[in-house]
From TrEMBL:
This is Uncharacterized protein. It comes from the Eukaryota.
Amino acid sequence: LVFCKMVGRLPTGVNPYLPVRNFVVSTAAGLERSLLRELEEIFSTISVPPEHPAFAEPPPPPSLSIVRGGVECTVTSQVPGSISCPDRYIWSSVLSSRVADGVRVRMRPKQQCSWEKHLNFLLRDVKWGEFIPLEAPVPEIVVKSVNSRLYHPKHIARFV
């Protein structure tokens, strides 16, 4: 099983036709509950931007769950094709949290992958432009491989 920071899963009960953002806000060990309370407070203050008056309802709050080393957040946009609502939650967690160390966004559903060709095929499905502008420098890529034939992190990172 290969984990890159861009993998994720579609939570149960989520409409697959609406944009979903799954991200993990990381923190120091032992501070997960504090981070959860802080994120609940931060996310409760997010409102609809004035440029979208037709969608005057506040966005649905993300589902939050404590994971080892952080809080996993899943946000579904109410508007097909729109990712602005979930992205506001991501940026708010980065800019407003005092406890968070960072944010890892899962860029595609989690899937087991044991062959290079399969990994290459899965990565073609990622909408990179939604996360990284083409003119931006290539970000640092961190790979973690667990019980996989694809075991060398630098080799896997070349595919990404």
